[in-house]
Amino acid sequence: MTRLSDSFSRGPALVCFITAGDGDTAANLDALVAGGADVIELGMPFTDPMADGPAIQAANIRALGRGTKTADVLQLASDFRERHPNVPLVLMGYANPMVRRGPEWFADALAKAGVDGVICVDLAPEEDDDLGPALREKGIAPIRLATPTTDAARLPMVLDKSQGFLYYVSVAGITGKQSAAVADIEANVSRIKQHTDLPVAVGFGVRTPEQADAIARVADGVVVGSALVELVATHGDKAPEHLRALTEKLANAVHSAR
Amino acid sequence: MTESKPNSFRNQPDDRGHFGQFGGRYVAETLMPLILDLEREYTAAKADDSFKAEFDDLLEHYVGRPSPLYYAPRITEELRKDAPEGKGAQIWFKRDELNHTGAHKINNCIGQILLARRMGKTRIIAETGAGQHGVATATVCARFGLPCTIFMGATDVKRQQPNVFRMKLLGAEVVPVTSGRATLKDAMNEALRDWVANVHDTFYIIGTAAGPHPYPELVRDFQSVIGREARAQMLERTGRLPDLLVAAIGGGSNAIGLFHPFLDDPSVKMLGVEAAGHGLEGDEHAASLAGGFPGILHGNKTYLLQDDDGQITEGHSISAGLDYPGIGPEHAWLKESGRVDYTYATDTEALDAFQLLCRTEGIIPALEPSHAIAAIGKVAREMPEDAIICANLCGRGDKDIFTVAEALGVEM
């Protein structure tokens, strides 16, 4: 049992995303946990976040503008692990900052910081060698994404060597934009679950407790990012109370499906 | 030949799109199925005589190919003045600046729009920096009646107004991109974001020999018409191959187009010229090979301008067309394999070379090939008088006269 599998074993899980280095990140993370987030996804800022919509792009720019370095992201992670020994923590980001000092260096640093998994947006399964083996060697889950364009022929390749959970991107597009119909999500999640025992979490375009509730009834997890990141943008250092309030509503919605 | 050398330098990439350790397909999962489709479709098109016939026909009658191969006597003489006795190579130019739309970019756009039609795509998007690729894309979209959206950094929109107006005249929608530093790489990010949201009907015409596989390969193949023509023309005119090929490099599409057909001619040396901006010692340059490190951006692994954390830094060059923090992956491989040499020229050197070509040959070059001409100025004097240098004059300078005037302190 890992921290990740444990949190999904209790029924639908709420996965909350914020960007490292944006606002008072440690306080923001604590607010997500206090609000009932089951899994934390911490964004590693990158200059060129090409899969992200305006909200998360802006968060990346704010974080980098404040001088956030890879070392700071790792420190935030290891401090989080000390404060919250049982809450799974996943890093999400782009390949270049992850492989810059070599995949072994990165995997080792994550293991020391107590990180449970990595979502690397632009590392297709075809290029797994760049990071996957080093992560698995250190017991860190490489979490892959499947999308509406991932067809049946391709799905086994995506699932192969995938660990932790599968992140189902519910719309063909960027983060935070439009939302998919629940019926489509249900059909796709059940299609994916025929091929894997991994929990399937659904993200991209999930903003409200109502959406979270509906998705939690058809999936193992719900990922919310842009809506939380926008609270950090709007409220700055006052963000934690707002993050906690929204997370509570989302968590209630997701957990009510248990 | 040592064991580590490949039998041919012309059989890359491998079936996974890798040029040695470079290239590949580093894209979000949403795009992967489309990239694989494109690869299948391109493989089929390559084997289809009617595709090749249509491409060749358009290049001849619409683009104006073959472009001339021109011996440039006065710049040759000018450079010999400073050369030691018996030195000073002959300078020849492949005149791709005479193409329709004024640069080599159109070769690739013709090829890609034919692929888009083959795949049944009904909408075209592209990124542009200086606007040359945007103009070429808008041109082929007008020619084939497809709607076209061009992403252009807001900074570039301001400094390249004539090209913005050209694109609009041709019927394109120009979207100013304000994210990041609002230049070429941000335009490419935004084009990728549009593409990922519109995969079902949209074809992305990438402007240089970079991006996820199969783009570096197909852009190279479409641009290789430059080198195939130059090779045949040189043999016909002189009965021999050139001793040295020279081309400017931003992403590297004109250079790979010239070089690739010659890669297995061991007597032909090659020199790619990056933009050194204000010099390599600071951050104000765009020389990814000379001043960068291998990394992953925009779908491929290649040399990138980046910091210790892998954050991408902004390139600078007086030539907006060279102002990109990466380079096509095949160049990264050709550098590491030693087959091609790479050097650089600064803004100042390029400006001097620009004026030299204007005065000696009556040709106003774009600032991009002015970098190649600057490098020729250094190497021609080391080579014997009967040696032949062939450089790609990949664009004309009409678009650059305002930039040059400003740099020379001339009010227009």
TrEMBL record, chain A:
E.C. code: 4.2.1.20
Catalytic activity as recorded in UniProt: (1S,2R)-1-C-(indol-3-yl)glycerol 3-phosphate + L-serine = D-glyceraldehyde 3-phosphate + L-tryptophan + H2O
InterPro entries, per the entry: Aldolase_TIM (IPR013785), RibuloseP-bd_barrel (IPR011060), Trp_synthase_alpha_AS (IPR018204), Trp_synthase_suA (IPR002028)
Xref: Pfam families: Trp_syntA (PF00290)
Assigned keywords, A-Z: Amino-acid biosynthesis, Aromatic amino acid biosynthesis, Lyase, Tryptophan biosynthesis
Positions of the catalytic residues: E41 (proton acceptor), D52 (proton acceptor)
The UniProt record lists the keyword Transmembrane helix: no
Top class in the EC scheme: lyase
Pathway recorded for this protein: Amino-acid biosynthesis; L-tryptophan biosynthesis; L-tryptophan from chorismate: step 5/5
Gene Ontology MF term list: tryptophan synthase activity
Recorded superkingdom: Bacteria
One Gene Ontology CC term in the entry: cytosol
Subunit structure: Tetramer of two alpha and two beta chains.
Entry function: The alpha subunit is responsible for the aldol cleavage of indoleglycerol phosphate to indole and glyceraldehyde 3-phosphate.
Family: Belongs to the TrpA family.
Protein name, as recorded: Tryptophan synthase alpha chain
Species this protein is from: Aurantiacibacter rhizosphaerae
Gene: trpA
UniProtKB/TrEMBL annotation, chain B:
Organism: Aurantiacibacter rhizosphaerae
Annotated SUPFAM superfamilies: Tryptophan synthase beta subunit-like PLP-dependent enzymes (SSF53686)
Quaternary structure, from the entry: Tetramer of two alpha and two beta chains.
Entry protein name: Tryptophan synthase beta chain
CDD domains for this protein: Trp-synth_B
Gene3D superfamilies in UniProt: 3.40.50.1100
HAMAP family recorded: Trp_synth_beta (MF_00133)
Pathway: Amino-acid biosynthesis; L-tryptophan biosynthesis; L-tryptophan from chorismate: step 5/5
Reaction it catalyzes: (1S,2R)-1-C-(indol-3-yl)glycerol 3-phosphate + L-serine = D-glyceraldehyde 3-phosphate + L-tryptophan + H2O
MF term (GO), any: tryptophan synthase activity
Gene that this sequence comes from: trpB
Domain of life of the native organism: Bacteria
Cofactor: pyridoxal 5'-phosphate
